[in-house]
Amino acid sequence: MSIRQCCCSAWRATAGNTRFNRLHLRREFTRTTTTTTTNNTAAHQQQQQQLVKSAQHPRRLHSTVAAAKSTTKTEEQQEQQEGHNHAGQPAQQQQQQLQGNNHVRQLSQQKEHQQEQKHHTIMNFTQNLNAIWAEFTDRVEKQLPLNDSDFIMLCSRIKKEGFGGAQESIRRMQTVLREIHRRQLASDTFVRGCNMLIHMFITHGDLKSARLVIDGMMRSHYPPDPVTVSTVINGITRLGSLGDIHEFYQSLQEREMWPETTGLYRALIWIFANRDDLEGARVFYAAYLKKRHLITTTTTTTTAEEGGQGVTADSNQEGDEVYNAMIQVYGAVNQPEGALAVYRTMLKRGHPPPTPGTYHVMLSMLHKYGMKEQMEKVYADLKAAKDVEINGSHLTAMGRSPEETLDEMHALGMQCNARDYNTFIASYVKENRFKEALDIFHRMIQAGVEPDVYSYGIILDTLVKDRTQPAEAAFDFYETIKSQGIKPDVVLYTSLISACAKTQDMEKAMSLLKEMESFGVQPNVYTFNSILGLLSRKQQLAPEDMEQAEHLWDKMTELKVRPDTRSFNVHFTLLSKLVRPAVVQEEDGDKILWKTDGRTGVATPQPVQKMLQLYRSMRRNHCRPDFATHTIVINTLVSSGHLRQAMQVYDDSKTTRVKLPVSVYNEIMSALDKAKQTSQIMNIWHDMKTAQVLPDNTSYTLALDACEQLGLAESFSKIRAQRKQDIERLLELDRRQTERMEFSSSVMNNKEDS
Questions:
Q1: Are 678 and 709 in contact (CB under 8 A)?
Q2: Residues 208, 491: Cα–Cα separation, whole Å
Q3: Domains of the chain
Q4: Each residue's pLDDT tens digit, 198-243
Q5: Which of 151, 80, 139, 148 lies closest to 111 in space, CA to CA?
Q6: Closest by alpha carbon to 7, among 194, 266, 245, 246?
Q7: What are the Cα distances from residue 138, in Å, to 134, 146, 391, 566, 749?
Q8: What is the pTM of this model?
Q9: How many other C-beta atoms are found inside a 10 Å radius of the C-beta of residue 249?
């Protein structure tokens, strides 16, 4: 059964055919109210019957009457206490109100009981997943109790660990959802389970089935929550188009089921801005302004088990994030006037007011575009703001140096804290001014400001990046950090591993990785990238180096660290160093490398096979290849004589609109020329023009030779004329290339001398 069919069957078996919806809730409310009234009437009748029976037994009469009087008195006192403000109401109306109050208290008690139960699990979740599933099925078969937390934890474990395959994991998740329906648990439990099912579909690239799940939720009157919507938006961003996002937004608005939160609007603005669709970002900004009075600004973050990545449902209590996002979007597209308009809208409306972050972004942007007058006006607004405190980042955003900022803060009577000093140090590190960064750190110590773990992390990173500092300086500083009682975190360890690159000390890097594990510090993808990068810098790779790389890759999988684009690129680089150029073949006395169809006729070496497998895995896991990915893979495949596979990867780059460097185009055209596929060379030439990649001398030569062989006189003349007009740039390219070669030669000579 396909994934989509599994999804459809789940909804037919669960949400599609159930009555657990709003109508059911109304009936449940009516039934509960009726039951309460009936119970009160039954209790009164039972009391009357006891009085009748007691009349037949005089010894019981006194105690029974006393009990009845006590009960009546208690009820009268309770009624007087709860209804003393309603003395003028008819008795029947007071009785109805009393019953309503009793019902509200019952519902409140039930809700409190449910909340207590939701924080406890009945099942044993310390077992492996198979044992947990066996316990779950046993409890279902025997009709044993399970609470909301059991179902949420089970769904979370299924999503994270799976059962060996996507379809089996999804099938079991659907089984859990059906049981939630059958037991009529809290609606939010079912929604959270659906969120995890949606995330599983999206993770495996099945956006259509994910959409079917949310459609089923809405048909069954389960409104999607912010996590549901943010998860689907993430999926559409990765697997769909901007038009799909518009359609999704409109469909939920038409059903009045769109969660009106600032986080979702902020996310939509950034999604469209990152795709260079400013108009789309403006549409959602305008929608936010129109619906602002309906929008929730309470904190609602995506939970770990529901797995929303990239978009949080809402992470702001002030409601300013949409404004700040739009300000940053205008800055990214070089439209500071638009950012100013958004800023003035915030000032005019007054709620939410500009935050420290708003002022920082505005000051930095206006300084960048030389709008000094407007920058000073915003700074005046900042100083006049009652609820916003000026800090060092505001002054550095205006172009002040850290020293000038410190002096101005002193003049304003402001105390510099660790955060301010961290900002100053980081600004110098960003500009590669490492000496000045260390000076600010010493000034921080002299001022009596205690550094925090972030301060130490920046300085350690400074010592690592500063080429004038030896690797020992970073490790000596690390000992100072430990002597201060600071517990090293993953950032500090990653910086130390990067320091090992200065001495190519792979053994030290691996010992740091083991030290992290012993102290319970979880390495992240940047940690592994630093170690893999250390391997990739080796000029000659030994077999044990690749074994080490494979071990690290397996370690990432074991720790559930998801490799990013850089991880794959470093791995590709390692494999490329093991690939040798294709051996020249003899055929009819002529030396040829490629056959006329681009094949080599030789067996594919193992590193090339591994590279192709890794590339497919990268695309299958929805890790977006960048220009470096395509450059390494294409050049390696061309060099090894696998032109056909190289052209397939090249076509992928065109599909994803990745702009390749001119060297890749030259490699492909050169390989096509050797393979006697001259007409394809002109296609590559036109691709370069479409992608606006400027040709170099090699590109011109290959294109002109192809025109000459194909008899394209007109194209030959145009390209030659273009080359003449481009002569100055080409000469500059040759000059720079010569300088790079001379520099590399001098470096090699110095190494040999040393």
A1: yes
A2: 39
A3: 552-753 (1.25.40.10)
A4: 999 998 889 999 999 999 998 888 899 999 999 999 999 988 899 9
A5: 148
A6: 194
A7: 6, 11, 60, 45, 74
A8: 0.58
A9: 20
